[in-house]
Amino acid sequence: MPVGAYEPPYYAVVFTSVKTEAAVGEYGETNERMEELVKEIPGYLGMDYAGSPGGLSVTVGYFRDADAIEEWRSNAEHRAAQKRGRSEWYTLHVAKVERSYAFERSRGFEGGPGGHG
Predict the structure, then answer these.
(1) Going by CATH, does the domain composed of 10-100 fall within 3.30.70.100?
(2) For the whole prediction, is pTM greater than 0.85?
């Protein structure tokens, strides 16, 4: 289930990667560990993930504020993974969310600007 809409403003950190065959095992282990660690960050709201058969994956982490992102960015284990990733597999984008909507087929539209679904 996708992460629901939150009351803006908050931040989305978009992590895009391409996994080569050689990196798949390490990437999976690293990803699992990073998921465990990020949940400990105050202000972490959740994560959405999508992947393609060709190895492209997109992960979007949601954070309440820039301080939460900074705490995550400065985590020692996360920094080590970032260092490996920069030379192997990823790009990163940080965006401020100004509007957020949620739609559930069975319930209809929820929200409006900043509505939490």
Answers:
(1) yes
(2) no
